[in-house]
Design brief:
The structure holds 2 protein chains of 2 kinds. By secondary structure, chain A is mainly alpha-helical. Chain A is built from 4 helices and 2 strands. Chain A has one domain. The chains are: A mainly alpha, B mainly alpha.
Chain lengths: 108, 509
């Protein structure tokens, strides 16, 4: 593959230099936060389960009058997704501005 | 059910709300050309978010989710998480790139990206199937609502409701009614939250934010009646929960009518921020849905009437309304609640039937059968298509196969197994080619329908590709097959790969 062709390879796991690299690092970081907190918590719940229906330390603790695990999944996780989206947008805005300024292009 | 009276006031309020949408739409039409397109009025990030949320709100969110929570407790939270977490995937992986790619619908994107009519046809057929399945769930909701409003059984309710919704679509189409999605969202959220505040107040819980006040209800259920509503794995295993949640997430990021929402705002940055607002507005409803489920359980327990599972399953989809009635909510407020539910279902059906019909006329008829077709001929096909699809949906929904949210989940599984991988690799891997996408989409369809069609003969399918949750194992498998087939066949045209690198990903280099 010659050099010219390589300059337009698109691959999520091997992004080209510049804007796309910064964007991909951000995307992967957000996806890690998305997967670990959500699926990780369910796995922890399963690990700490004391009986087949899954009662354990988290189901006995309460928070906002709710059992802790119910609060975490029903109320915190949707909020967490919103927080992740806000973080993503703020950082992507910054990244876009940095690269737009460098090339003196102000759209977006 | 036959002896139930016609609910006069709720019926009046429902009619009034629907008519006012038509009138508001007509007024808006005389002021501007359309909501869509770049010529339209600038609606801002919050307005864009409300539009995303109202586009999303359906009978599944309004009725189905609370019904499943009522039946299954913690397990049904997989729906809450799946339908909010999916927006994270959508935002970070697709929103900006799809916009820069510049194709409005799923078949258009797939056809252009992979430069293949076969792939476009497959994507169009899949989009139509998704629309039909999704509509069946809405029709079930409409049927139950009309049954309740008119005091008739479900079968007659769904025929009557189906006729009304089709008339509504036709009238709106003929008059050219603009969809005021901000107003739609406002009606839906107010009609969902107000009765909940009333119920929380009546129970003596914290009523200002019933989303947080229902915690006491869960404790009362546990202490007074020894009903544990929250045991994590009472209704399904960890695998089933995660599989369902993941399926709904990738399905959200692959639903054709959701993907095409990124074009109403003038630039990418506003489109991204409007997703955040949209997610917040959606979460407002989803934070509240468990409260209906808890209040329903509590009212039943206190009334000394605990239905057996078969009866509970039959009425779960209209549990939201039954709770309001049982809890002594004033009749005008119950009417408002019914109006919100009918609006959510009607607007979803309108959007889906139009999406399906335009796929039929544009992607299949115009692009593949008769490229010389005139505009009026295309319109005629689209109109006929709407009626054919509606009839098909009605026939299926006469015998609804499952609960509203479960039927909807199958549409999500199909989207997650086919459209999501096609977009994901289409955007993020320049080497993905037409052979890969065709193989992937065909496999995705087979995986989605493996469990219902041959789950009995081959029990393994039923356990790794459960009907509502097949994308957890399915989507990664489809991605893998797309990668392998793409690598074994010639790469896509240099032109497309350059476009992807320079326009979609290199716009700032």
């Amino acid at each position: 593959m010659d050099k010219r062709q390589e300059s337009y390879e698109v691959n999520l796991f091997n992004p080209k230099q510049g804007y796309m690299r910064g964007e991909v690092v951000l995307i992967l970081a957000i996806l890690v936060g998305w997967g670990v907190v959500n699926f990780g918590f369910q796995a922890v719940l399963w690990l700490l389960a004391e009986n087949p229906v899954g009662e354990g330390i988290f189901t006995r603790l309460t928070f906002f009058n709710l059992p802790y695990h119910f609060w975490f999944t029903a109320q915190f996780l949707p909020l967490w997704f919103i927080i992740l989206c806000v973080i993503f947008n703020i950082y992507l805005d910054r990244l876009t501005e940095r690269h737009s300024r460098r090339r003196d292009r102000t759209y977006e | 059910m036959n002896s139930d009276p016609v609910k006069f006031w709720p019926l009046l309020i429902v009619t009034g709300v629907l008519v006012s949408f038509v009138l508001a739409g007509l007024r808006a039409k005389s002021q501007e050309m359309s909501d869509y397109g770049f010529s339209g009025r600038y609606i801002g990030r919050i307005g864009g978010g409300a539009a995303i949320a109202s586009n999303w709100m359906s009978a599944a969110s309004f009725l189905g989710m609370a019904g499943l929570l009522y039946l299954q407790g913690y397990f049904a939270l997989a729906y809450v998480i799946g339908w909010t977490g999916g927006y994270v995937l959508l935002l970070v992986l697709m929103a900006g790139q799809i916009r820069r790619f510049g194709k409005y619908t799923a078949p258009d994107f797939v056809g252009a990206r992979y430069d293949s009519d076969v792939a476009r046809l497959l994507a169009a057929l899949i989009s139509i199937t998704i629309s039909v399945i999704y509509c069946v769930a809405q029709f079930k909701g409409i049927g139950m609502l009309f049954g309740w409003l008119f005091g008739i059984d479900y079968g007659r309710g769904v025929v009557l409701g189906g006729a009304v919704v089709v008339c509504y679509v036709v009238v709106c189409g003929m008059l050219g009614v603009a969809r005021n999605q901000q107003m739609q969202y406002f009606v839906v959220i107010v009609s969902f939250i107000l009765p909940l505040m009333f119920l929380a107040h009546r129970f003596g819980y914290f009523w200002l934010l019933p989303q947080f006040g229902y915690g006491e209800g869960i404790q009362d259920l546990a202490t007074e009646f020894n009903i544990d509503f929250t045991a994590p794995f009472a209704s399904g295993s960890l695998f089933q929960w995660v599989a369902l949640c993941f399926t709904l997430m990738v399905g959200t990021a692959g639903l054709p009518h959701v993907l095409s929402r990124f074009y109403i705002l003038p630039n990418v940055r506003d489109a991204r921020w409007s997703v955040v607002w949209g997610l917040f507005f959606i979460a407002l409803i989803y934070w509240s849905a468990p409260a209906y489920a808890v209040f329903a359980r509590l009212l039943e327990a206190r009334g000394g009437y605990i239905p057996d599972p078969a009866v509970a399953g039959k009425m779960a989809d209209i549990m939201v309304l039954k709770t309001a009635v049982m809890g002594g909510v004033p009749v005008w407020l119950t009417g408002l609640l019914a109006a919100g539910a009918v609006s959510a279902a009607f607007f979803t059906v309108t959007g889906l039937l139009m999406t399906g019909a335009s796929s039929l006329s544009h992607d299949i008829y115009y692009r593949l059968i008769n490229p010389q077709a005139s505009e009026s001929r295309k319109m005629a096909i689209a109109k006929g298509g709407t009626l054919v699809l509606a009839a098909l949906v009605l026939v299926i929904s006469l015998r609804p196969p499952a609960l509203i949210a479960e039927i909807t989940a199958v549409a999500f599984a199909l989207a997650g197994n086919t459209i999501f991988p096609a977009f994901l690799l289409g955007i993020w891997w320049g080497r993905a080619n037409r052979q890969g996408v065709i193989a992937g989409m065909v496999l995705g369809v087979m995986i989605t329908f493996a469990a219902p069609l041959c789950g009995n003969a081959i029990p393994l399918f039923a356990s790794i590709f459960p009907v509502t949750s097949s994308a957890f194992c399915g989507a990664p498998l489809v991605v893998l097959v797309m990668v392998v087939v793409s690598l074994l066949t010639p790469p896509p045209s240099e032109e497309m790969r350059r476009f992807l690198a320079e326009v979609v990903h290199g716009h700032l280099d």
